[in-house]
Hints:
By secondary structure, the protein is mainly beta.
Amino acid sequence: MKKLMLTALAVVSFVFANAQDSGTSEGFANGDIFISGSFGYDSSSTGDAKDNTFEVSPRVGYFVAENIAIGARLGYTTRSQENGAGGEVDTNTFNVGGFGRYYFTPASKFSIFGEFGLDYFSSKVDVGAGDATTDGFGVGVGPGVSYFLGSNFAIEAFWGALAYASSNPEQGESTDNFSIGLDLNDINLGLVYKF
């Protein structure tokens, strides 16, 4: 569902990008600023059990050199699960982080990039009888592609290839997770606007 919504957003942006008339060229250059992000909503139900998730993750970047961009990102995810027997679990997660990218052909309409990112997150789970908080951080490196639809709008796809995350719950033991691979089921699509 998330990928469907992002694809629809990309198609809408394509229509707007073709309608605009600007003096700027496609691609990125030193000093360019861009905003991007993604959002998603997922809802499923089985019998009386329901699971709803909403997430939004805006980001802003700045080209400090011809091929190098740095930036910051925020993220918020809320998930509500009902088991049908009156039990409900609400989870709210907030994350903040930074990223660095190297673009191989930034001035072109189509460019491949590599991204390194570092994130901090805090998650609060409310189970009705009380709540629990978990804090943690993550580090990831992965490839991505961007494609300009017009002089200011582009779509991008990014997926993680190498990642490490550590979470430390308020109660209980910490969890460390290491992953490697190019799972194409976890592609993140986003819309980019260049100033």
